[in-house]
Amino acid sequence: RCTRACNYNCLHCSFGSSPAAINEIDTKGGMRIVDELYEMGTKWFGLSGGEPLLRKDIFEIIGHAKSLGMNVSLITNGYYVKGDILDNLIRNEVMTAVSLDGREESHDFIRGKGAYAIAIKAMDNLSKGGIFDCIVTTLSRNNCSEVDYIAELGHKYDAPRVVYHNYIPVGRAQEHLDMAPTPQQYEIVFNRIYDLMQEYKGKLSINVYSPFFARIAKERGMPDFEQWFNNVFLGQCFIGG
Question: Which of 36, 41, 113, 146 could cross-link to 102 by cystine, CB 3.0-4.6 Å?
Fold first, then answer.
């Protein structure tokens, strides 16, 4: 999470701020983090925010990671994925994920009018550049019925994976608790996502960043559950680990 700065003010955001928070880590500090991760044997260096592409030194830090032989990934809202920034992402082979929260009405309700069109254009550009990595979706009461659409878009734009997040009541999201899905909605949507995992098997990897999805997977008979839980599932809770 390299910056809190963001050009959007998404209703469900747990971290971003506008203007940027003071005392964010500087370029030297960012380089040091890369070095420490490299010394630990880390293969991937991931960047998120806020909006990481707002950092003026982002490609300096990315270049340092690449010079050490690390792979780099980045999550963006898509707004800056054009021109020189797009060219630099492609040149540095930065596997880039785009946040998309459903169809146009749902996405723009959360992020602002026109955000959906911008995200779709970014996905198209990244796909053509061979670096589109993932669609990241945060579930809310408004978009639980649109998880199929997200998977369809991921497949359409040749993303290797789609990841669904549960609604986390932190930061700005705490001010919009009425957007959190009900327990009944979670039950329905997580069962539907499990179905999608089977339907897209071999075509699109689908994962869930929510601890309580594991219960659904176990109840539904996830093949080789222990292997999946320990090596594939993104939603493990690390607080006590």
Answer: 146
